[in-house]
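Two entries, shown back to back:
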Amino acid sequence: MLALLDGLATEYGDDWWFGMAHAFAQCEAGQRETARKAIDRSMAAHPRNAHGAHVRAHVLYESGEDAAGRAYLDEWLRDYPAAAQLHCHLTWHVAIFSLGVGRPDRAWQAYSGGIAPGASCGSAGQHADRCRLVPLARRAGQRASRSTALVRGA
């Protein structure tokens, strides 16, 4: 993907959507600083782009910046509608960042407010996000019974 997008970069110039997609490919290829600069440019041009917020979350996560990622998404999500396409998934990232900084209470708050059944309706991948949180929570030391119950909606 990165090779394809690198080859198209001159055609798209400063297009914010292309810059966001290119930043994601750069991040996934381990080029985090290049990706950070690209997503910064993209988000400067269109700061309410949810896909761009998602890419920035990945850059921060891959850079080990859990506190910065959680703070960024907490602020960014403040006025993002629960019914919007990426609400659940961005909230999942908040939960993961929260586990990374030793705040399981905040992770479960994120779960209840944006990932649990009925909390958000914008993501086709909402069930997958719920299921993926369980093993990550277990690795962070959360009890299996609580994490499994939350995923089941108990």
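entry 2 starts here
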Amino acid sequence: MAELGSFPGLAGLVQQARADLTGDALLRDGVDGLVVPRADVEVDLDLESYGGEVYMWGMRIHDPQGLTGEAGTRYVIEEMADLSADFDPAEVFLRAWEQIADMRRRGEDAGGTLAIYSWSGIETWMFRQYAEHLPQPSDVEELVTDADVWVDLMQVVKQQLVLPLRGRYGLKQVASQVAGFRGWDEVKARHGLSALDGEESMLLFAAAVGMDGDPDPGAAEALLAYNRADVDATWTVREWLATLDLRR
């Protein structure tokens, strides 16, 4: 009888079926133990865009030792957003870049480590698109290719784990269905939203900046809350991963 290894992809399908049936997170074949990059200062980064351009780079900064500022957890979201119809994506990016560069300098000066976490690679792609606005565009490539600093948490999960999600590894699935995150539900309830996704984000932006009438402050508040929920979600997934005791 042929072994599973004789059929490329079949072993993975069997593992996925096992995870779905048991409801357990499993180590992928060939992975001896779960490794999640951590640092003294951890930054969760999430963008919001409209018309293919980014108007917000929200950050959740967890810095318990105060290496880059006040000790604890702080959010830099509204400062990294331009909620206007004629927003300048280059200027918004430069603000975000300076924030990150400043944290890296402070962290290094204090002898600490810093890691920036995002989900699915869109932040990486957009950083590369805006690199031309820097005096040294190659600085972006240096950052996003440093695996100790720039971490795509989705790839950390997908490359090491099989989750009971029928093969769906979007942030909303992983955070809410296995990591227990409820932040998006709270945002929907607080702001009277029936959905909270990319399409709803664009509708909220149009309302917030007054594209079809007067600017709606409530829509602006909902956008900021949505971004905060997104960065809280990647943090929650990372903390959940730390609770897993999986090894061969």
